[in-house]
Amino acid sequence: MVASATEGVKISAAGLPMVAPPGGEPEIYSDRWELLWSAGVGKGQRWDCAAPSPSLVDLLKSGKVDAKGKRVFVPGCGRGYDLPVFRSAGASQVVGLELAPSAVREAQAHLQELGLPEADAAAIEMLSGDFFRWSSPQGPFDLGFDYTFGCAMHPSMRADWASTWAKSIKPGGTLVTLVFPINPDADPNVGPPFPISPALFRTLLEPAGFEVVSEAPVPAELSHPPRVGKEVLMVWRRK
C-alpha cells in the first residue's frame, strides 16, 4: 500500500517529499504531502517525533514567552503534539494548520485520544489550508510557532514564508522559531528538510519586520534524540 500510494514521489533521506521549485501547478506540492500522509505515517516514524517539543515546553514554563490569554498559530504542525502545550500554558485559542487533509485527520484523532477537558478541546482548532493563502477571520495572531516548517520550504519560497509570517503575527506579537536542521555540511538545495540556520532566518525575518529577542542552542536534554546538536531556539518580536 505504501509503495503504490507514493509511486512517482521522490523521497529524501529523511523520508520527506522532494519538493520541486515553484513554477508548476500549486497542487503538486500539496499532493505530495497528502500522498505521504495518506499512505501512513505512524507515530514516531519519519518526521513524526511522537511527542511535544521539549524545548517549547521548557520555554513556556520558564515564562520567557507568555502564552496566557494569547491566540496562537502553529502552521505545519503535523499531528499537533505542540498544540495542547500552548493551551496548557494559558493560550485562549490555538490554531494548527496543515496542507494535507490526511495530516489534519491524524491530528484531530490524536487530540481526541488525549481526552482533553471540554474547554481545552474547544480552544484548539486543527484546520486544513495553505499557509500562503489562509488567514484567520479573527485577524493576526499574538503568538506563532515554526518548527520543521520553515525547513520544508524550497529556497525559492522563503521570502514568501517570511512575509506571510509577518502578516500572520500582529505588531508587538511574538514568533518562536525552533531552527532545524542545522547542518553546515549539507547541500542547501537538497530537501526537505532543507538545511537552515539562525543567520538565514535573520536575513529572511528581519526585513519582513521581526527583531530577535533571544537566540540559544537547544541543549541535548531538550531536543528529540535524533535532533540533538541541530537545533537553535529563536524568539522574535513583530515590530
From TrEMBL:
GO terms of biological process kind: methylation
A GO term for molecular function: S-adenosylmethionine-dependent methyltransferase activity
InterPro entries: SAM-dependent_MTases_sf (IPR029063), TPMT (IPR008854)
UniProt keyword annotation of Ligase present: no
Tagged with keyword Phosphoprotein: yes
Keywords: Methyltransferase, Phosphoprotein, S-adenosyl-L-methionine, Transferase
PANTHER family: PTHR32183, THIOL METHYLTRANSFERASE 2-RELATED
Protein name as annotated: Thiol methyltransferase 2
